[in-house]
Amino acid sequence: MNSDLLGPKRLTKFEKVRIISVRAQQIATGSPLFLEENEIPEGLTDPIELAKLELEKGKLPILIGRKEGERVSLINIERLLRGE
């Protein structure tokens, strides 16, 4: 049901940048990856690229909060990646 969805059906470029930057910072400070070993291309160690890969593969357990006036909607990132 889309009645609880505020804003666009997909991640905005601002949400995407925020997610990647925060996750890259976590990875850089030692946070474990949500990717399996076989999902990581050989030699890839850049935290930003790893965060992008996690996002592309839908591996991040994140809720996006969107607010419109008094209404607040928490949306699972997987839903926004699928465009529902």
UniProtKB/TrEMBL annotation:
<dbReference type="GO" id="GO:0006351">
    <property type="term" value="P:DNA-templated transcription"/>
</dbReference>
<dbReference type="InterPro" id="IPR036161">
    <property type="entry name" value="RPB6/omega-like_sf"/>
</dbReference>
<dbReference type="GO" id="GO:0000428">
    <property type="term" value="C:DNA-directed RNA polymerase complex"/>
</dbReference>
<keyword id="KW-0804">Transcription</keyword>
<dbReference type="GO" id="GO:0003899">
    <property type="term" value="F:DNA-directed RNA polymerase activity"/>
</dbReference>
<dbReference type="Pfam" id="PF01192">
    <property type="entry name" value="RNA_pol_Rpb6"/>
</dbReference>
<dbReference type="GO" id="GO:0003677">
    <property type="term" value="F:DNA binding"/>
</dbReference>
<dbReference type="InterPro" id="IPR006110">
    <property type="entry name" value="Pol_omega/Rpo6/RPB6"/>
</dbReference>
<keyword id="KW-0240">DNA-directed RNA polymerase</keyword>
<protein>
    <submittedName>
        <fullName>DNA-directed RNA polymerase, subunit K</fullName>
    </submittedName>
</protein>
